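Handout, page 2. Input:
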Amino acid sequence: MLLENYELEIFNSKCNPGAMGVHCFAHLSQDISDAIPYLNSVLGGFEYIADPPAVTFKVQGKLITVHGNKIAVNALKDEAEARKIIEWLKREINDTWEKRGQISPSYQATPRPKLMEILKLLPKTNCKACGEPTCMVFAARAVEGVKDGTNCPELSLEAKARLDAYLGQFRFMDADI
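Output:
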């Protein structure tokens, strides 16, 4: 087991102190720097930094950045959600490390969809039927992997097929945390 222990630090946003959510740092007892390229390969990070190694993922609307000695997570409801995500990530790190002999490490970010390419495929009616205030916000949520063609009732079957084909080129993490 590579990662055995961590100390959780929960805090409010310094730039938005009145925010309802919290953020957390998990200060790791073990250095997991060597596991980061393997984790990037398995989970498909959208940001990868080689030196010092760090990878960022977007999971269920949360940004998670893994450093060699710390994990940072934003937009959490409470400490219970923080612990749940960190425990999930601890399992992912340890499973990935155990299987590293069968994994090709990745030293670059996974390609992401482009917001403007998605927007071009949308009806641009800002009808709100998808639950978002505008088509631009819908496109941003599609970049995150939260929305797809099934979520826009205004799309014709042909337009839905084009949007889904475009989004299908990219890897989105839909982790069951």
